[in-house]
């Protein structure tokens, strides 16, 4: 089985897309992450949903989870609102990691190794200078368990 057999259309966002729009896309489509594309429509990076949360959750709550408990429920429910003025570019980690990109002929093991190595829940599939879609962790595991 190859990447082309597991490939699915996958939504993308640009670097200047508001983070709140990216969060809505993640939530509305139950996605593990998003492919961030450059001006040419090619993968720039993968934005895991957890990175969006990292940007929304106050640093002091990440550093000391006990502090999250002292925030009243009314204010705790609003933590994503602060993302309205920020862009996907701002949500990206400062250090660049290996980009999880494969071609149409990548095997299941190659895809799994790439996901594991890059800690990414999806792999962008590029061939012929264009993005064809993505292979998600869920699709990969579904097929691997079937076999």
Describe, in plain words, how this protein is organized in 3D.
- The protein is α/β, with parallel strands linked by helices and 147 residues long.
- It has 9 helices and 6 strands; from the N terminus they run H-E-H-E-E-H-H-H-H-H-E-H-E-E-H.
- It has one domain: CBS-domain (Roll).
- The strands form 2 sheets. It has a 3-stranded mixed β-sheet with strand order 1-2-3. A 3-stranded mixed β-sheet has the order 4-5-6.
- The longest helix is centred in the last third of the chain and has 11 residues.
- The radius of gyration is 17 Å and the shape is globular.
- 24% of the residues are buried.
- The model has no long low-confidence stretch (mean pLDDT 86).
In short:
The chain is α/β, with parallel strands linked by helices. 41% of the residues lie in helices and 20% in strands.
Keyphrases for this structure?
20% strand; CBS_dom_sf; CBS_dom; 147 residues; CBS-domain; three-stranded mixed sheet; CBS domain-containing protein; alpha/beta
Helix and strand layout, with pairings?
Layout: H1 3-6, E1 12-14, H2 19-28, E2 33-37, E3 43-48, H3 49-56, H4 59-63, H5 65-69, H6 73-76, H7 88-91, E4 101-102, H8 108-118, E5 122-127, E6 130-136, H9 137-146
Parallel strand pairs: 1-2, 4-5
Antiparallel strand pairs: 2-3, 5-6
Q: What is the approximate shape?
A: globular
For the termini, the CA-CA separation is: 10 Å
Q: In the CATH scheme, what's the topology name?
A: CBS-domain
Q: Which blocks of ≥5 consecutive residues have pLDDT under 50?
A: none
Q: Output the structural class.
A: alpha/beta
Main β sheet profile: 3 strands, mixed
Number of domains: 1
Which band does the percent of strand residues land in?
15-25%
The CATH architecture designation is: Roll
CATH H-level superfamily: CBS-domain
Q: Specify the number of helices.
A: 9
**Overall number of strands:** 6
CATH domain class:
Alpha Beta
Q: For the CA atoms, what is the radius of gyration? A: 17 Å
Helix content: 40-55%
Order of helices and strands: HEHEEHHHHHEHEEH
Mean of the pLDDT scores? 86
